[in-house]
Write a structure and sequence with these properties.
mainly alpha
């Protein structure tokens, strides 16, 4: 299984919801940021590389992990083993 799938499974298990519900929650938040009335917030979300029109939960996760590593904040990733 890929790392995103593993993380989404853990989030689902920790919250007693399904993996699909985790993906829906993340997708909703991505959509909210992507369509924010705040231009600075929209600009931040548009930095996330994506194949389609809007990032997928997996694309968001990849970007977030790479961002934290680039910022020297890998310590935040220790909450979820096997993310990187």
């Amino acid at each position: 299984m890929d790392k995103a799938g593993t993380l989404f499974e853990r989030l689902a298990r920790d919250r007693d919801i399904t993996v699909e519900e985790v993906r829906q929650i993340i997708s909703k938040r991505i959509g909210e940021g992507w369509n924010s009335p705040d231009p600075e917030r929209r600009q931040q979300w548009r930095k996330i590389p994506c194949v389609g029109e809007i990032p997928t939960p997996e694309e968001w996760l990849k970007y977030a992990v790479e961002f934290l590593i680039a910022e020297g904040r890998e310590d935040l990733l220790r909450w979820y083993p096997n993310v990187y």
